[in-house]
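Obj: model holo form, ligand = 6-O-phosphono-beta-D-fructofuranose.
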Amino acid sequence: MKAVHFGAGNIGRGFVGLLLHEGGYEVVFSDVVAPLVQALDAAESYTVHEVGDGGTDRVVDGFRAVDSAQSPEAVAEEVATAEVVTTAVGPMILKHIAPHVVAGLRRRAADAPPLQVMACENAIGATDTLAGHMREHAGADWEELSARAVFANTAVDRIVPGQPEGAGLDVTVEPFYEWAIERGPFGENPPHIPGAHFVDDLGPYIERKLFTVNTGHAAAAYLGYRAGAGTIAEALGDEAVGSGVAAALEETSALLVAKHGFAAEDMASYRETILGRFRNPALPDTVQRVGRQPLRKLSRHERLIGPASQAVEQGLGAEALLAVVDAALDFRDADDEQANQLEGLLADLPPRDFVEQVTGLEADHPLAGPVEELVARRRG
Ligand SMILES: NC(=O)C1=CN([C@@H]2O[C@H](COP(=O)(O)OP(=O)(O)OC[C@H]3O[C@@H](n4cnc5c(N)ncnc54)[C@H](O)[C@@H]3O)[C@@H](O)[C@H]2O)C=CC1
Ligand SMILES: O=P(O)(O)OC[C@H]1O[C@](O)(CO)[C@@H](O)[C@@H]1O
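Output (holo structure tokens):
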């Protein structure tokens, strides 16, 4: 069995590639960073170091790597003969992956089992997004090509921080992980990934994950950045940051209970588990990494505006989430293109235009006014 995985970065090597390997797949990593591809192709193995309680070392071997920028034909050939395609490249990169998967489907034998495609990104419906880009790319051939694949959305959860210089291909990760995958698209033949779980309706799972793990993480990053913390563990050591994060998560939990019927006590223990993961002192996770790409994180259906807008629509509170949005507006990182753009947009756009362009909130949405006030305050 072969899996082609696009994106040999932190989560690609430290989670998706690891679990595919443990499921018995030969993993073919595809990336655009030539030195990374060369290092992977030359290596016999790498080690995933799980740090913190219960952590252990896991060795991944039997993989290969191809450079999708240099050798698109070779990538198409690998996809044509694979059972599984996964991605962990970032939601905005999926449009660049689509042509490779389409090219692979064009070459796929007519009697081959359908290619199982799963995008593993922090976004709702990421596989649908990839399939949408593939449809655009395939044009009139889409009906025929799409019959050669099945598409399942997934929710992936494992904290894989940026890796220290000199770590090579090894990856340091937290021991916890969760990979929830839609069951329906596979019929009787789900992929063999021990440790993943298959669910009939991914919607509640992915919202619970995105609006708890990722909202809480973003809250720790933005409130922590404002408080001068360097890492997420340090941020949560600050009492005011800790209570700001906890309050934001109480608001998202109230929404998830109301919307999906999760039990309030289950949400309370889910929150505690997650806050414990964030506090893992062995995990060198920076506020810059977790707060990266603030424009994406402030967009309409993402981890801050997404739950806050739904909460106010339901008559629930969103004050603590708004306080996190306020802190996100102050997030700066000279190395982060979106953080620089954010600073420019705050200076250039009238508050109402900023709200419309950055958050996507409709002018008559009840959250638009409060966010506009936060922006206006910065204009003096
Ligand atoms: N790091 C984590 O703990 C988690 C990350 N995720 C999601 O996984 C995705 C990747 O995140 P990370 O691994 O942290 O980022 P990363 O930056 O470490 O890895 C992304 C990889 O994608 C590669 N890439 C970029 N453009 C590409 C292209 N056109 N074709 C092939 N490869 C390309 C990059 O060179 C890089 O190696 C994001 O959507 C993130 O939200 C999800 C859960 C956990
Ligand atoms: O990967 P993103 O979407 O930029 O956000 C960072 C977040 O994703 C994770 O990498 C994994 O869920 C978290 O560490 C963090 O909440």
